[in-house]
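Here comes my example:
=====
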Amino acid sequence: MNQLVNKFSSFIPVLGIITIITLKPLPTLALEPTEILANKVKEFTVQIDGEEAGTGTIIERNDNNSYSVITCWHVMEKIGDYQVTTLDGKTHTVAKIQNLPDVDLAIITFNSSNNYPVAELGDSSKATSGLNVFIVGYPVPFRFVPERRYFTEDAQVQTRLSEGEEGYQIIHNGAFTHGGSGGGIFDAEANLIGINGETFLDGNTYKSFGRGIPIETYLATRTDLKIPDNIPLLPDLVDLGRKALKQEDYRGAIAFFNQALEKDANDLNAYYSRGEAFYRLENYAAAITDFNQFLRLSPNNYLVYFYRGYIRGEQGDYQGAIADYNQTIELDADFDLAYTNRGFAYGKLGNAQQAIADYNQAIQLNLESATAYYNRGLIYGRDLGDYQQALADFTKSIELDSDDAQVYVDRGNVYKLLENTKSAVDDYSQAIRINPQHAQAHYNRGIAYSQKNEPEKALQDLQRASTLFQAQGDSANYQRTLDRIREIQRI
């Protein structure tokens, strides 16, 4: 097999259409067996932060008020300080790190007098072809998930190797993004039977698989644990590129990703990251080319379809964007942001009813989606003339996110259409408090003051709006504002 280790970092920030992912809350009805298992496993699964990000499982409470956590050695091998975050949100400094020779496993220790649950170790000899397993992890944050969250995935063991490089013998059909390394592989009774470490791509079939180390490997070799020398590793080209991305050196980042792809033409993370760099440079064609290549190598990645759809929308290719969002939804029907963005694209194409249907579905999946309520309000108010429903949606959006100036502007516009000038002025004023540089809010408030027969306030706002429009290079609105100023001055 041609193996491609999938170590994702951050994702493309999708601006304008969407804001934030809020994970779907657990239902209030009786939990399904998988949900019960997920909740139990979550109690002893921890996230690891430091020079590298990963996941671990508490496997022992020691006599000295300390806990032992098992994870992957490649999560801990870079020199630096590391912390463990437990389910209660408390952060604990890693006091000790030990690893196993020639095996990608590490045991780390943190001190706490709190009583944390400990995982039961299962019989990993049963982790053979056909066994249903459960994989967990804490992927690193990205724009849509601004904090690390507990993720789960059902999987099935595909085969069990008699020997494996660095201890990896369990091959399963699950996959996890960066930050999930070191997460547990559990059986149906929530017993820990392996440590998940890598995602790779079969270069022949283009199917993604995961690799894990059976827990029996740890049990057989734990007496060999040692404190490592922590010799620094040679820099990884993709890591160097990601660092350049964070520093907004996009061309420098692309140079690193080019070098990585020269060494491995099937490096998924390099294609993904270079696509992000091209996106930041507004080289959308090059970004789409890289995402196309990613999807040729890994055709079932719903997030990359989602990002490609966003870029197509940025280019005005709303039909292409809809096709990508359709693919996203086919792969993950519960991804509310795909419905939100598809609704946006339908709205741009003038299909108001389909846009409303998509926003309804997004809200059903995520009752806290301020953007879905806002976008639906725009359709109701702008396209359908249902101002009362538009008001209700804008108000709900503000309840969920009170710091978005544009929502106040649009709700103010609806109040103005309903001849509620006082409420309109209040909303424009709030928008200006949030963003004093919001030219349209100043302009709209100026017009409202004019209608209230308060010319001095109207002129003050319109003059401010003209200055802002001019600074923004918006010549059409600048000229329109000057015309309104002259009209009021003549009166």
Q: What stands out?
A: The CA atoms of residues 50 and 355 lie 43 Å apart.
